[in-house]
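Example record used in the benchmark description.
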Amino acid sequence: LPWVLARGEGEAAERIVRLARDALRPTLANAGLAQALYESTPEKGTIQQQHFREVAQLLKWATGAA
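Model output (structure tokens):
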């Protein structure tokens, strides 16, 4: 199951994105999904089923399978 590695708000969220970019990981802004995951999923917690479809689409995009 997909899970949340790290989460944060404001400067913490900006740092997470900066670290991902520095590690050459793909990033994509999706404020609605980010907020929903932040509210429903603890750090290192699995993503709830209601978010599977949207997260799967992002994973396909990130891996170049889309």
